[in-house]
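Cross-posted from the bioinformatics board.
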Amino acid sequence: MYKGVPASPGIAMGKALVLPKKHRIVKRRIIQDPETEKKRFLEAVEEAKGRIESIMLPSGESAQEVTLEILEAHQLILEDPELINAVTSQIGNEKINAEFALEATLNFYIDLLAKSDSPYMRERITDIRDVGNHVLDFLLGEETFRGSMIKEECIIVSTELTPSDTAQLPPDRVLGFITELGGPTSHAAIIARSMEIPAVVGLADITNAVRNDDYLIVDGEHGAVFLNPDSETIQEYRIIQEDKARQRRELIRIKDSPAQTKDGSRIKLLANVGEPWELAKAVEYGAEGIGLFRTEYLFMNRESLPSEEEQYQSYKEALERMDGNEVVIRTLDIGGDKKLPYLSLGDEMNPFLGYRAIRLCLKERELFRTQLRALYRASPHGNLKIMFPMISNLDEYRDARSLAREVKSELIKEGHIVREDVPVGIMVEIPSTAIISDLFAKEVDFFSIGTNDLIQYTLAVDRMNEQVSSLYDPFHPAVLRLIKMVIDHARKEGIPCSMCGEMAGDPRFTQILIGFGLNSFSMSPSSLLRVKKTLFGLDLENSRSLAKKILELPTSSDIKDCLMIEE
Amino acid sequence: MRELRVKVKTETGLHARTASLLVNAVSKFKSSITVEKEGQKANLKSLLGLLSLGVLQNDEIVIRASGKDEKEVIEALVDCGKTHDLW
């Protein structure tokens, strides 16, 4: 078994198709006849142009708008007079082969772009490489990947997948893919998730291990890949795969039914999204809004801060996509455990107790101000709520809120249209805030309980540390009591309270939580239908008495036992 | 020779799409056209050249055209700037 990075969930089983390597070593050769060499280069450029055109044309529905824009830029690069001149004059002056002259020229531009401050440079480098590869293919006369090569269902095995590759993938024949390079946010991973095909990335040397027509099992959820597995493993995975398909069919039937308990109490089910493509998933699985829109994706994998305009566009699109349903956008939640090349955050002993989220935003005020400006500018396009993460005392909230007010009046003065009534709330994820949530409830517009951090801070457990991760226990009585307390305080002041941590999407907790009085849950889109189905079988009155009983129990095993009995 | 001195207004500067617009606007002309930012020069007919200048919002650039159709070049650029709100 090979272990990689899970990039897109699901299980794929089938024959491998190994794509030809992209990273070729180009050798420098002295040539005799520069004129013929130049001609050879120009012909290869023309052929590459033709290929890009053919990628752009037929794929039709499978090629997204974005991909088309990228390919158009690729054509402009191929027509670039500077590029053509630099290559042909090197061929003429130094009497070197076209391949090497092209590589040298491309590298010159790649180096220039890598040094630039502009946020778009990383992507442009991939584009230049992609274009260069097309020309090299024709110069070297090597066979390379083409969508039409995929005749039957297969699992793609490749060093990496570029935008041109993915634009050519026939979605009906590609069962899944695995790559050597890339992380969960690489282009390949994002495309895999939007196509809903399983993918595992970051598998070192996999293209050498796998041969065409080898049998593969790709487990996208766990990042596991099996090469020519025995029949038992195949059987095992076939059962899992069928099970999943059946469950999915069952669940999808209830997608348009309102979320309510057996006795008719309406519960609001919202989705957590981390990237814009997940909005479509949220809608597909019947989310009534977005309870947590993470904004970190805008800041990661790039060389500089995203501009106000770029952020505005993203927020506006999210709001419009949800068509008047609420969208709770969380301001930047980033810190020392995630590196941003343009923000020197330094190494910390305890990044989760350190300089992060709202603490960082209140110091890096320009960064925060830009995000708030973008949010308020987007506000007329839908039902926006702004949420601050990692609030530990009221001063922080007041400070953040007054900055938000300042930004709002500044925008109005500049002539922008903004909504006056955008609710501003907080994540309740630090015990200190949960404990004084009665005081917070008098000032903030809403709560959203972030259980993942609340549990880790309450129990003093780092759940990434295997030695202690078993102590990370959502059934701990202290955790449940804190949650109950926060819900009670919100109700007393009449402010909305939702929950956006993993507990909200875990059907084992649905009954206790509605028993505590929670009536809004936000979770990853794929959990929505399961929780809805659970709600259908619950009775609010029973759940209340169960919750009351649970709160009296001394240990988490008692609580688990009690829940088993009730089930 | 004719000159056009502008301050870039687009928030993302001259990146892929906006840079492509400019290159497309001038590529059909015969004149030689350069774009300069803080003493660094590039050929405006070259997307790679323009990109590698890394023109950001509020940067001042000077575009110079010389050749028979230099007047038309500048007119085309002024038009392009107006239509797409570039400066």
